[in-house]
User: What shape does this take?
Amino acid sequence: MKGKQHRRAHGRAQGRSGKDCRPRTADRRLIWFFDLDGTLHDASHAIFAAIDARMTDYVVRHLQVGHEQANQLRLTYWRRYGATLLGLIRHHAVDPHHFLRETHDFDVASLLRAERGLAQLFARLSGRKVLLTNAPQAYAESVLAGIDLARQIGTRYSIESMRVHGTFRPKPSRAMLRHMLARERVARGAAILVEDSAANLKAARAVGYRTVLIGRGGRAGRASYVGLRVRSVRDLPRALARLRG
Ligand SMILES: [Mg+2]
Assistant: This one.
């Protein structure tokens, strides 16, 4: 964050009283929807490589194609549908549960890298916290436990629960994002999606979420659908002050 911007944000967060980030009554009705990978922990450190390698191996085994072609298919479906799984279901009738189990079957804890003190930070953050991840449930539970957020994020939606009319609709599906607002009985303007994916934020903004981008986000960082951009979830208490404005 640039100096001037930082001072302005800090000044507003502190308020005239100088007390930082006091919870307000209105904040308690907020519902934070948190992405998992790349948002609550640094998946690019080692976990994404582990998952990608397993997905490519899975495609090699089940579609009987070479390694390079399998890698390309994985990437093509991920770009086209937002999840490799969707392409495999649509074009190759792959069993989603089998695929998710096989591709996330590794020791998550040994590869985790996240910031310290997240549990205390989340306890101080007003509002309810919900997990909304395109990852499978068993993996998501392991990561949450590993970064000490299992108690702070009680409601969890993984890819298995992102179905609309029986079809998988992970992020950035607008239908699914709308469905979540109704399911969680979110008051108008009270939903905030915290994400490292610009495409997911764009969809969420279009259906009424407020949006926080984690990380730099490249050119998307300045897009109109990004309500706020922060370096890490650590900055959220201060971000909350800016979201009020
Ligand atoms: Mg992510």
In short: DSSP finds ten helices and eight strands in the chain. Residues 47-63 form the longest helix (17 residues). Residues 35, 37-39, 196-197 surround magnesium ion (CB under 6 Å).
